[in-house]
């Protein structure tokens, strides 16, 4: 299929997703008022609050003195699972307003915790910490369904909707200081999770990959890791949610890279595309050994480039066949989320490739929803339809026509687009054409 034919088909699919997202639009201010009303109805006695919790949150600010919380959808207990960040949000076609609506429905009952001293010994390990607030939090994290909890609160929630660095990774809403927490039921813990808990000598990386191979998605693994329930006994500590999301994406990504290390290459240059929540993703797969690069183009007026009069902001990061040894600062969590999605596809088809992901963040992306939308958008880019090109260079030139940058600008930022990684075969074809 030619690139122009593919773009027309994909544009129709994007229009349908925009229609679904528009139907799910909510007024955020009204939602905050509704939350306050639901909270007032839920308070019992001396600020005792009974709810159902689908997930937890561990902050990263001022580490190792962090805020740890149990998230509960106040007044929405019967539908608690819908409020937990997962790939299901993409399948629903949620809009940015809907994400914020769910955020403001989750009460973060939290308390300050010193990660270095939360455990039962001088190492700070939470290996056997199953009592008190941290213990309840861990039970919620390892369960495979929302858990009945009863939380004692100190005062009313702080309905503060300012965006912080922590909000980048996972959405949280109103916060209230928790004085106590107790389980209202015995949580159901999947057998594979029990196995990782019982093995005190299992490194966290191996346990994560084990759970992934057993069908657990990265969202579920992230929750278990964040609660300090993976790894060797002495090494089990609470992990800030933002860090654990990237750690799981990176660890599983490295495992998947190993599955394609000796696989044959894709046999043609492929172009895949997807767009969601004001983010457009182009994925170019080309014959050759594994190589990956993410280039981000953030339009002025978008959430990460808010000055409407400013210029386009570009960032990039890449890795070769052997992977990376250092953390990616410039593109951060988006790098690991998009790389995971590409590797999942290649592992599924049993091939390896050079992979270039181009992300255009438009000014329609006005609020942060988390890196889940990067992961799910790239995952879904590999549908039945795709375009093909004769050469990698031709694919890059064709895609650039749909980007807010010139080919020269892209080449200055992207090593792959600059031709530094061009294969000998492609070079020969370009010389004879």
Automatic annotation (TrEMBL):
Residues 20-305 form the Archaeal Nre N-terminal domain. Residues 319-427 form the Archaeal Nre C-terminal domain. Keywords: DNA damage, DNA repair. It holds the Pfam family Nre_N. One of its GO terms (biological process) is DNA repair. It comes from the Archaea. InterPro entries: Nre (IPR033167), Nre_C (IPR006979), Nre_DNA_repair (IPR053546), Nre_N (IPR006978). Residues 160-191 are annotated as: Disordered. The keyword DNA damage applies. Belongs to the Nre family. PANTHER family: DNA REPAIR PROTEIN. Involved in DNA damage repair. This is DNA repair protein.
């Amino acid at each position: 299929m030619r690139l122009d034919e593919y773009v027309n088909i994909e544009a129709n699919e994007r229009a349908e997703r925009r229609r679904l997202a528009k139907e799910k639009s909510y007024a955020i201010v009204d939602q905050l008022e509704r939350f306050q009303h639901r909270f007032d109805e839920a308070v019992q006695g001396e600020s005792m609050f009974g709810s159902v919790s689908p997930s937890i949150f561990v902050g990263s600010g001022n580490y190792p003195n962090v805020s740890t919380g149990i998230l509960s959808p106040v007044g929405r207990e019967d539908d608690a699972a819908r409020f937990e960040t997962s790939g299901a949000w993409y399948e629903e076609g949620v809009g940015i307003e809907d994400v914020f609506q769910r955020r403001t429905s989750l009460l973060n009952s939290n308390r300050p915790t010193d990660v270095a001293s939360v455990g039962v010994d001088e190492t700070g390990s939470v290996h056997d910490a199953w009592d008190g607030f941290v213990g309840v939090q861990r039970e919620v994290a390892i369960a495979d369904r929302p858990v009945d909890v009863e939380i004692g609160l100190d005062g009313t929630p702080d309905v503060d909707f300012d965006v912080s660095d922590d909000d980048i990774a996972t959405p949280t809403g109103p916060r209230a200081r928790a004085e106590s927490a107790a389980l209202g039921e015995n949580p159901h813990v999947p057998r594979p999770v029990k196995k990782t808990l019982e093995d005190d000598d299992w490194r966290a990386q191996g346990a994560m990959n084990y759970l992934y191979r057993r069908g657990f998605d990265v969202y579920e693994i992230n929750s278990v890791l964040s609660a300090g329930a993976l790894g060797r006994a002495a090494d089990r500590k609470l992990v800030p949610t933002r860090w654990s999301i990237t750690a799981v994406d990176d660890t599983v990504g490295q495992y998947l890279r190993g599955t394609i290390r000796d696989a044959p290459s894709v046999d043609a240059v492929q172009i895949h595309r997807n767009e969601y929540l004001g983010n457009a993703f182009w994925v170019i797969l080309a014959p050759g050994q594994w190589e990956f690069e993410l280039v981000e183009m953030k339009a002025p007026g978008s959430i990460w480039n808010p000055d409407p009069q400013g210029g386009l902001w570009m960032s990039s990061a890449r890795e070769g066949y052997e992977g990376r040894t250092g953390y990616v600062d410039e593109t951060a969590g988006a790098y690991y989320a998009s790389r995971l999605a590409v590797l999942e596809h290649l592992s599924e088809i049993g091939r390896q490739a050079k992979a270039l992901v181009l992300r255009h963040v438009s000014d329609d992306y006005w609020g942060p929803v988390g890196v889940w939308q990067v992961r799910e958008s790239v995952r879904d880019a590999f549908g039945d339809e795709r375009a093909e090109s004769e050469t990698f260079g031709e694919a890059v030139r064709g895609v650039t026509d749909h980007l807010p940058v010139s080919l020269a600008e892209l080449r200055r930022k992207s090593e792959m687009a600059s031709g530094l990684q061009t294969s000998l075969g492609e070079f020969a074809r370009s010389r004879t054409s």
